[in-house]
Structure formats: C-alpha cells, structure tokens
C-alpha cells in the first residue's frame, strides 16, 4: 500500500491549523497536526481529528440527486452531473432573462468560497446573496468600519498586557484555529485576561476578571466601562485630540451610564466593572477579541461600536499588542474577487432588505426576513429560484417554522452539501460537494495566506467553486470566470508574484503587522478621523453614538434563554460523526441547580423550554456558575441519525423558539441571546411526573 502525505490546512472550523494528510488507496488514513507549522505547531482539536470520519462517512452524498417525493422526504433519484447542471442552468437562464433579482444565492458560514458566490451573483445580475451575516461577523465588521473605516483584529503576538475576551470561547469551541492558537501563545507569554461571558468558560477560569453579564446587555456594559475610564481620566488624551471626532459628545452621552444603573442593566456588580475598566485602561497595550456571543442581539451593532470606541479612547487601535488594522494580503481576494463592478447600481437598490437594514445591504447581504417575505408574499417581487451552497437554513435562521414555510413555497431550490440535511431534503436538485481535503483552495485569514490542497477524490463530489464556475460557463458568463475553477488559483496569486505551486511549497505566508499606520495616512474614513460620533451614521438617520436599548417584550418569560456553540460541532455540522457525537450525545439545557429545583427538574431529566409560542426539549445539566435567571442551550442542534423522523430538526432546535422581529435597524440582527422563556419538566404522553421534592 503506497502511502503519500500532503501538507494542508484544516477547515473543520473557520480553520487554518497546519495539518498532514496521509492518503493510501484513495482513502484518508490519518489527518494529524503539522508539527512544523510555525503558528499552530501540530495542534489539532477534536473536530479537526474527526476529519477522517467526515470524509468517508457512509451517508456522504456522492452523486447528484433529483427529488422524486414530497418536499422534506428522503425520496431522491440519482442523476448525472450533466442533467443536474443543465436543469439548474435552465432555471437560472429563464430568471436572468425575466428578472435577475428573482434568484437568491445562499451560503452558511464562510468556507473560503464566499467571494465566488458574490462574483456569481454580480455576474448574474442579482443583488440577493443571503447568509447569516446579520448575526455573525458582519455586525463586528460594519461596527468597526463605521468607526475607523477598517476591521481590526487582536495582535496576540505583540505582547498585550491585557486581553479582553468578549462573548467568545475560542479555546474550547475551536471555531477559528489560527486565532485560537495565537490567543494561547499570548496567554503563555503572560497576557492577563478579562473575560466577559454569561458562562464560566475555560478562559473565564483563567481570567484575572470574569464579568458575567445578562445575555445581550454588552452595549450597556461597554458604555459603563467607558464612563468609568473617562471619570477616572484614564483615556489617552493625545490620541483623542489628534485623531478622533466626537469625544466631547461621548463624555456627555455616557453620563447616563452611571455604575449603579449599568449594574441594574447588566447584572455585573458596579465595583467589578470599575476594577476591570481600570485594569484595561492602565495596561501598556490591550487587545479585545469580540465573538459572536455579542453579535446576536438587537444591541449588537451598538455593542461593537462602543467596544471599538473603548479601544480607541485608550489608544489601543493599531498599537503593538492592541487591536491592529487589517491589511489586505495583496492577492485577488476578499476585496476584488467578488467583482462588485459587474452588478449595476440599479440592481443594488433591489436587494431584499436594503430599505430596512442599510448597513447590512452596504456589506452586500440580503436579509432573511425580506427573502422569506418575497417568497411567501411576492413582495416587493417574487423569488423564482434559490441556490444554497453549504447551509442548513432550517437550523440556522430565527423562526425556523417560517423558514420551513418559505422553503415549501420556493419555486425551485438547489442545495449543494455534504449530506442530505433537512434543508437539502426540501430541494429539487441536490449536488454532492467535496470536503476540505478534496479541494484546492487559497485560505485568506487576516494577514495569513495558506494553501489547502486536494488530497483525493470522493465519488463524483465537486467543490463549490467548480459548481459555480461550471454554471457560469453554461450561462455564458465565462468571461468573468475561468476555464477550470483551479485556473483561478494562479490568477489570484499573480498580484503578489506567487504561483499556486509556490504557495503550496511555502505552505503559508503571514505578513507581520505594521503598527500605527494612521499616523501617516489617517484612518480610512472620509476625513481620516476615528469616529467616536459617526457623521455617516447620523446622516443615515441612525444614532451617531452607540446606546443601549432594553429589548422589547422582556417581561414575557421567567428566564432568559441564550445559546452557545458546542466544542464538538461547528454550527449545525458534525452531529453525525460518532466520535464527536459521543462526546455530546444529546442537546443539553444548562441550568443553575436552584433553577432546576424550582421546576422539579433533576439532572438528566427532559426540560421543555418555551418561547414565542413554541417549545423545544433539552436534557437538563446543572451549571452552578450560571446566573439563576439564565438558561443555556446549544445553537443549531439537530439529530441527523433520525433521518426519517419528521421532528429530527425541530425537537431541540433553538430557532423554533426565536423570532426575527423586531430586529436591529442597522444590521437586522434579531434578539437571539437573552430571549424571555419559560421552563417546565417534560412529561411524555402517558407517563407520570416524578416529584423530586
Ligand atoms: S481549531 Fe479548527 S482548524 Fe484547528 S484543528 Fe480544530 S477544526 Fe481544524
């Protein structure tokens, strides 16, 4: 048996850990950490180590399918790629001729082909690309852009004295391989942590300060911290005077956030807020890691704005060991690959949700509420077809019952995925896609570039890039694409004088950060200033300074429901990989033991959690470190093993309990963290409830 070993980079999460893939007889034998990778040095988390189980899973889709039964069933027939692509292309050609905006393209979490999807949409003439941008990464990105014109990331290798981990659990959840290993390096080098999280995570256990806020109250907390810093005179006056706009307005604005009031809003003791604020402001350099934990409430955009302002007034922006401004790698990548110029301006105005959530639309994304409305009511125009690349819409979006109605009503649905997920079962055509070990890909991650290399072919699977490239060719859009998808690799690297072969030989490139770039060129805002108060937001009719507003309908439940990602799954993926599933076999509701006792619930019993007129079931697990008013459940849970069982994606799906309204105006973010809920012991029909008193 001839064994070959390839260097690559993992993509079981957002990715980036260097790996070695051993292949023999067209099968992956092992995927192991690459000890020579300079950043990750052989590290692999449980998800990465489960790659083998994913690649050769017996339920992998390996051939295109056409649905022959009702929507939601598992009745599909195998068809050829030729037939499948012809059918999809015919549908698209028809829509392009009638109304290109009637086509919606969709993806889940970014898998390094997001820019391809935008390029395809722009070439087709549709402004409607749908993804979870309003609840993941884009509140952070747009909040940052509206403040300083750019995105920042923590400079872990710049020796920060203090790192604030805000609503993020990188070490346990392993959602961003390269970033997580950077954080671990900084901790080993002596950085001290302030962890802000309703849950006592592994990082919280190592922190100098752990602040346990009410879920969704982060904006109030950030504004309270700013007030302490200004009151104590700990701000960086030199930076503020030379580079910012709106400092006076801020000082006036945060007067309302007195510590006692902030304690009431956030549940964090005023004395602890003060101590943490002083520690942060006095640090020689401090970085802030912002996670999706704070990007999923109606106050998310305000929270991000306040956090960026906090970093700015303490002089931590673009400072060594602070929050460094992202610099493009120079390849045809995040900025250029989407080819925005291909989309006519008139089409931009037709983006679904662009009137309601203008910042989300500025970032190029449609809003799910508007898409479902268009499908169900034909307003402002009907949707003719939806192409989904790697997204389980039924577990991803708020109000899953409405998503189901929309998919039922969708005139044509194509899904490209690894498995016959609940969403794929609603599709007319299902296409089998390659896993990360079966495709060549340029990985672009902050200032990091790496080569993900195809190690083998499984069945007839194709990468999403290949599918998009082939569809584009069939639709006569070839001039904007490549003869073969892999031809793009050299073309994209050409601006930095590199070839794909060259990048594969190097493995990865990471440009060292350059600090304080704003001193020479100013910030990338209209007048080069750091916007504490944003004139752009003011002109758009949004608040120019961030403010916290208590979400509506907070009195409708006894508890606040919130969710978190599991260390063993990546969003809705991998629940069907035995070695991961055995580490978390069931969806658990974490409760304080006193909360459980109040409802005669004991560890291991089933709890029915109710919100917004629905209930979902979770197995009770005690967590004595939670606030007694909080209930934690996993995000995006479903049971792939119950393929025929109609409740496999509804029974413990937190999005059966969430709603999309009323979302935040700027980004359309709904309240997903901190939803009023009820709690009761679940008694199966015919059973007798056991009293635990
Ligand atoms: S952290 Fe992410 S990239 Fe690293 S091994 Fe785990 S899944 Fe792979």
Task: Characterise this structure.
The chain is an alpha/beta fold and 693 residues long. The protein has four domains: 53 residues, ADC-like domains (N-terminal domain of TfIIb, Single Sheet), CATH 2.20.25.90; 220 residues, Rossmann fold (3-Layer(aba) Sandwich); 174 residues, Dimethylsulfoxide Reductase, domain 2 (3-Layer(aba) Sandwich); 123 residues, Barwin-like endoglucanases (Beta Barrel), CATH 2.40.40.20. It is built from 26 helices and 27 strands. Strands 5-4-17-16-15-6-7 form a seven-stranded mixed sheet, covered by helices on one side. A six-stranded mixed sheet has the order 23-25-24-27-22-26. It has a four-stranded parallel sheet with strand order 11-10-9-13. Strand 6, helix 4 and strand 7 form a beta-alpha-beta unit. The radius of gyration is 25 Å and the shape is globular. It starts with a strand and ends in a 12-residue tail after the last strand. Iron/sulfur cluster binds next to helix 1 and helix 7. The site of iron/sulfur cluster has 13 residues, from helix 1 and helix 7.
């Amino acid at each position: 048996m001839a064994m070959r070993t390839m260097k690559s980079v993992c993509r079981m999460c957002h990715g980036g850990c260097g790996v070695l893939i051993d292949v023999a007889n067209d099968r992956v034998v092992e995927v192991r950490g690459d000890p020579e990778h300079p950043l990750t040095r052989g590290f692999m988390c449980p998800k990465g180590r489960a790659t083998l189980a994913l690649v050769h899973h017996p339920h992998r889709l390996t051939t295109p399918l056409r649905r022959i039964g009702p929507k939601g069933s598992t009745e599909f027939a195998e068809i050829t790629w030729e037939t499948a692509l012809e059918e999809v292309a015919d549908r698209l050609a028809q829509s392009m001729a009638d109304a290109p905006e009637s086509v919606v393209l969709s993806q889940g979490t970014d898998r390094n082909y997001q820019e391809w999807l935008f390029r395809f949409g722009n070439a087709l003439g549709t402004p409607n690309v749908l993804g979870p941008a309003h609840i993941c990464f884009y509140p952070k990105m747009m909040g940052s852009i509206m403040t300083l014109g750019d995105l920042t990331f923590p400079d872990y290798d710049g020796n920060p004295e203090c790192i604030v981990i805000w609503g993020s659990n990188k070490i346990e959840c392993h959602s961003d391989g390269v970033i997580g290993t950077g954080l671990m390096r900084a901790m080993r080098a002596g950085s001290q942590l302030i962890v802000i999280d309703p849950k006592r995570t592994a990082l919280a256990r190592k922190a100098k300060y752990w602040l346990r806020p009410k879920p969704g109250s982060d904006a109030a907390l950030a504004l309270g911290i700013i007030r302490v810093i200004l009151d104590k005179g700990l701000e960086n006056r030199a930076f503020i005077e030379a580079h910012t706009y709106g400092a006076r307005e801020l000082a006036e604005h945060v007067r309302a956030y007195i510590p006692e009031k902030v304690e009431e809003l956030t549940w964090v003791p005023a004395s602890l807020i003060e101590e943490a604020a002083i520690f942060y402001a006095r640090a020689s350099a401090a970085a802030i890691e912002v996670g999706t934990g704070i990007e999923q409430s109606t106050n998310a955009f305000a929270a991000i704005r306040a956090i960026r302002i906090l970093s700015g007034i303490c002089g931590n922006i673009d400072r060594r060991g602070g929050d460094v401004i992202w610099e493009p790698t120079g390849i045809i990548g995040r900025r250029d690959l989407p080819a925005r110029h291909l989309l006519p301006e008139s089409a931009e105005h037709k983006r679904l949700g662009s009137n309601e959530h203008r910042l989300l639309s500025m970032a190029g994304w449609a809003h799910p509420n508007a898409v479902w409305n268009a499908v169900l009511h034909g307003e402002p125009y009907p949707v003719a077809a939806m192409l989904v690349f790697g997204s389980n819409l039924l577990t991803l979006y708020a109000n899953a019952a409405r998503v189901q109605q929309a998919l039922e009503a969708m005139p044509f649905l194509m899904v490209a995925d690894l498995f016959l997920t609940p969403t794929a079962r609603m599709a007319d055509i299902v296409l089998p896609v390659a896993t990360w070990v079966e495709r060549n890909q340029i990985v672009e991650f902050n200032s990091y570039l790496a080569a993900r290399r195809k190690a083998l072919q499984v069945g007839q699977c194709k990468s999403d890039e290949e599918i998009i490239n082939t569809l584009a060719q069939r639709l006569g859009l070839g001039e904007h694409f490549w003869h073969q998808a892999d031809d793009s690799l050299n073309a994209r690297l050409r601006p930095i004088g590199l070839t794909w072969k060259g990048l594969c030989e190097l493995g990865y490139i990471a440009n060292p950060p350059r600090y304080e770039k704003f001193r020479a060129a100013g910030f990338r805002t209209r007048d080069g200033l750091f916007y504490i108060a944003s004139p752009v937001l003011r002109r758009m009719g949004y608040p120019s300074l961030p403010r916290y507003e208590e979400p509506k309908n907070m009195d409708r439940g006894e508890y606040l429901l919130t969710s978190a990602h599991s260390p063993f799954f990546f969003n809705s993926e991998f629940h069907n990989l035995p070695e991961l599933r055995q580490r978390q076999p069931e969806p658990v509701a974490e409760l304080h033991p006193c909360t459980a006792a109040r409802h005669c619930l004991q560890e291991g019993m089933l709890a029915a959690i109710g919100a917004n007129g629905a209930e979902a079931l979770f197995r009770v697990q005690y967590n004595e470190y939670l606030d007694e008013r909080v209930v934690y459940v996993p995000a995006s849970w479903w049971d792939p093993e119950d393929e025929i069982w109609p409740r496999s994606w509804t029974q413990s799906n937190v999005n059966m309990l969430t709603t999309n309204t009323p979302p935040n105006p700027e980004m359309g973010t709904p309240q997903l963290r901190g939803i009023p809920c009820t709690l009761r012991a679940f008694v199966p029909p015919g059973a007798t409830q056991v009293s635990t008193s």
